[in-house]
Amino acid sequence: MAPKAKKQPNENLKQEHVLQAVIIADTFNVRFGPVTLKKPRALLPLVNVPLIDYTLEALAASQVQEVFVFCCHLGEQIREHIRNSKWQDGRSSSMTITTLLSDSCISVGDALREIDAKSLIRSDFLLITGNLVANVNLSQVVEEHKQRTQGKDKSSVMTLMFKTAQPGHRARCREDEMFLLEEGLSKRLLYFQKSQDQRKFPIPKDIMLDHEDVIVHNNLMDCHVCVCSPVVPTLFTDNFDYQTVHSFVKGILINEEIMGNKIHMSIIQDKYAARVSNLQTYDAISKDVICRWTKPLVPDMFASGHQKRIKNGRHNVYCSEGVTLLRGSTLGNNVVVGGGTFIGSGTVISQSVIGQNCQIGENVRIHNSYLFDNVVIESNCEVDMSLLCSGVRVLERVRIGKGCVLAWETVVGPDVKLADGTQLMSEPQVDEFDDLDMSFEGDDKPQSDAANSRKVEESMDTASYGAKCQAYLYKPAVESDSDEEEEIEEEESWWLYAADLRDDQLDESDDSSEEGEDDEDDDEEGAEGAGEFALDSDDDDEDGEDNVDSSLGFNPKACLLKVDADFYKELVATLARADSEKIKEENVILEINSLKHAFTVPINEVIHSLPCAFIDLARKLAESSGSTVPSVLAAFKSVASRYSPVMCNYMKDSESQLTAIAGLGDFVIKNEAYRPRLPQLVNILYDADVLSEGSIMSWYNQAPSNTNPSRAKCHAFLKKLVEPFVSWLQTAESESSEEDDGDEEDGN
Amino acid sequence: MSNPGNITAVIMAAGMGSRMTDLNTECPKALLPVGRYPMIWYPIRTLEKSGFSEIIIITRQSWQDQLASTLNSGKMSIHAKLEFLAIPDQEDIGTADSLRHIADRVKTNALVVSCDLITDSDLLDLMSVHRKNNSCLTVMLSQLPNSLTADTVVPGFKAKQKSNSGEKISIGFEYNNLEHIVYWKAQVDMEDEFVTFSKKFLNRFPCARIQSNWTDCHVYLIRDFVIKYLKDKSDISSVQGELVPLAVKKQMSVFLPILPQEESSMASPGGDMKVDKKKDLIDYAGETSNHLSHIIQSLSLTSPSFGTNEDAPRKNLIGCFAYRQTEGFCVRANTIAAYAEASKQMPRLTSNFLPTKQKAGPNVPEGTVIKPKSQVGADSMLGENVTIGEKVSIKKSVLGKNCSVGDGVKITNSVIMDGVSISQNCIISNCIVSQSAKIETGCQLSNCIIGDNQTIATMSIHNNDVLSNLAHMMSVPLE
């Protein structure tokens, strides 16, 4: 246990005055990909200062006296860091920090239950995450909460702190988008909903009827700062369903009438508070620190102690002492360079953070990137919009594309170009998240991951990452835990949101897809049998690797989800039978479910196969008219409208809808004649209310997978196909929503 | 025209008064007495005070003469030129229909006022809000006076006393500019379990304050293009119920200019996919704003779209705003409760409506015969030629002309219209007594409505009753 747990003798007398804070130094997710495999997120340097120091500084500035830092993943490192920090020498601060280690916790809820078990909390306390950057005085929020609980609203158990940020604000984490309702005068939180990928937000009408003054907020970001009454850990203990603060909030709101507990909110407007929750916010908040929004937490005023003095120049250029800048090197706007770094001549750096003791060669261009300490970049390299961890070596003439992440000690080069969005690490990936349930993974085929990656990568390493490389591809683990409160891990590529990009990502697939469009026409499909749409899944990924389809520009086999052929055949047969015997929809669902169990296929494979199977069914129905493409489409339209309840049953949320769209994509890749018809296919499902506009758009905007170049091309190719439909959606969007409502109005 | 801002003022006086059928059996709703003047006199005076000198009054054919003769009689001290436009009697039409009826007559922006608006606030404030925000539809909202929101006992049958919660409207205001209306939905229209907001709405108006404690005063300042739109769109029949929500919603639409080669109304996005699209409100708005006004909008420092992208002016063509009236008295006398409340306020407020030079007569006119030991409270008002017997006490009440009150009568909290005679020792509290009613000796009435020409027999006791000619009353809804 932690070294410091001494209780003060006169504790009872001072009880009310001690302000406590609990820092959860783990976020229980893997949004940082390979970066956090070796170092906990709380210790990642943000503008050359470990993140947790920002958090601790914010607490110290808010007169917090006692801090509990709760660490799980790589907690030893955090404890070590705090032990060596200025906070522990007792002279520079009166704040006591206690580090709590736990390996068994997998959520904030667990952490609070453990805190409850240790009964560390004596009064209202602050609950924050270890990645908060803020210059707001948190004690004011605590004071607000205290006044509320001692005054008229004794039942308030929590005050959540939010920061205003208009939609699209760069520091808003897209995975944490939310929508909430506040009662105007009392500041009580009435309703809370995560809003990612949703286009409609239904709220219970009683809220509107019961409250005269309701504020609808879509302009807030959650700072994950909550002031909790001492009862909160107990509530967590009482209810094991509470995993995250969000689930707790929801639970409290739902049970409000029974339990009588209330949650309030506090909105900060003029101060800064934001949370480094993914790479995109890491980028945004770094820029904010450099641009001094977080003053006094800016590089020249705030360093974690052992660093040298930092000079602040014009255009937000910060140089530590001991930086060597050779003649002809240029530092553009918003650059931070750590001490001991050497920058060669002809090198241009802009909008970037360079750590300490980095070696940067000649004629290197670094833009919008983050280099941790001890990074070596040899001459004539280009780094754009990337994150390079400590000890990374980039050999000569390497171009690192946008959105790359090179984890600790990775070596790449020489003479290679890294594709956009590549995530590399220096050791082969080992599945160290044994607590994450990986068995249900869809597209990534994880079972063979660890084994395969070593074998496959070793052979392709040098080709992609240079002759002297020491680099293995990182494949993000997709959490498929169906718990709705679990943070949905979406492959969000942070760099897509940065200002100046998006132009050249599709270049390679452009010409090929045009070809695809040319050879449309309804020639050859009559000949094909019904089972043909099912794909032969027995080929191996590996041997198909070089087998590039000329009309597509990539190898189709490499990017299709393998579907159990027997299952698929049976599924089509079931549907056909259901159709001929007019079986009810509910029973069709039951039959499909039993098929799923009989063949032990994962649910996403079922979803993936369903659209295809229905097209197959349509094809059978259209046999009389010769199974031409138009007749199949017409039949599919009627099938889709008839069976939309069945499909909707499987495609309720956006994730499953994405899978279904991917299924359609695979279908058209296999069946060339249908390629130009993909928009119609999507449209049919859209009209049948199976696919929502939101999921089509999010599929369309999905970042190409960086793990599999072939799949990325495939996605780009499909995107190109669907483009007309999507652009129609986008133009129609401005009209449609109101048009619907307008019609309603007219009907009255 | 000499109206301020070249605005056409329109008073809607064609309503049947469907929420107060117990009262307006005989005379049109617009002529029900409120204090010493008929109801419609108040909005006319409010308009006059704001500088309007030409006022259009929409009424029903059969009421037109009655209205004209009443209002043009010299006693009313009305100086504005009143123009009556009649709509056929048989049509049961909504406010928007009435407007459409006279749309040809209205070439400019229009200020539409309901005949039951009784307010002493200045309409110029509403017009300022309109002009400041370049609004296309400005609505006057007010919070009900406390005396109405509290659980006051309303005269009449208890069963009829539904709370007015059914008429509550959830109105959303932009958080940073509370004058800007971004959401409008009557609570009765919330049929589903859920109220739905779209992502688009939330992105456009990230922070909206939705309040349901405002009443729509039925004062609308409407831009000319909206009236044109209304003229072409015949399925909108009510301003509050349909036009306002529609305009609020259409704020989200973006104007797509008509391509020059396609002269027809093909302003639709998606080209050939929706050729038959009808002209929408935004198209009317777009037609009125030309290229120059776009430039003005985009360069204006005060415009809400300053600093945003160039497209913004196209987006902000439609704006709905509210004048949130908070000071002064404002009530729509369209329910019995509101009518009673407005009447009782008149002893205090009448002078606010009169021209500044003209002094309001005293609440108890000179020459009123009041026998000794009687009290008429300062919060009461009597008409001309009222005779009051001995030991009478009148509190918080309004009596019309030619009433006679016998000895020992107590009247509290009541509205007594013209020519009512009340015999000795009656006790009347919280009642509305219509014209020429006779209340005989010793009656005790509380919370009652007495119809025209009714005679209440000696010593009767009534509570929460409507005493009127039933057959006559029944005929009203059938008309």
What are the key terms here?
heterodimer; A: 748 residues; Spore Coat Polysaccharide Biosynthesis Protein SpsA, Chain A; UDP N-Acetylglucosamine Acyltransferase, domain 1; 9-stranded mixed beta sheet; 7-stranded mixed beta sheet; disordered N terminus; disordered C terminus; B: 479 residues; alpha/beta; 2 domains; 6-stranded parallel beta sheet; 13 helices; cytoplasm (chain B); guanyl-nucleotide exchange factor activity (chain B); protein biosynthesis (chain B)
CATH topology of the largest domain in chain A: Spore Coat Polysaccharide Biosynthesis Protein SpsA, Chain A
Question: Termini separation of chain B (Å)?
Answer: 38 Å
Share of β-strand residues of chain B: 15-25%
Taking the alpha carbons of the first and last residues of chain A, their distance comes to 69 Å
Oligomer: heterodimer
- Main interface by residue count: A-B, 41 and 41 residues
Please work out how many helical segments of chain B DSSP would assign. Answer: 13
CATH architecture of the largest domain in chain B: Alpha-Beta Complex
CATH architecture of the largest domain in chain A: Alpha-Beta Complex
CATH class of the largest domain in chain B: Alpha Beta
- What is the residue-mean pLDDT of chain B, rounded to a whole number? 78
Query: Order of strands across the widest beta sheet of chain B?
Result: 5-4-1-6-13-8-14
Total of DSSP H or I helical runs spanning 4+ residues of chain A = 21
Domain EIF2B subunit epsilon/gamma LbH (chain B): 369-457
GO molecular function (chain B): guanyl-nucleotide exchange factor activity; translation initiation factor activity
Subcellular location (chain B): Cytoplasm, Cytosol
Keywords (chain B): Cytoplasm, Initiation factor, Protein biosynthesis
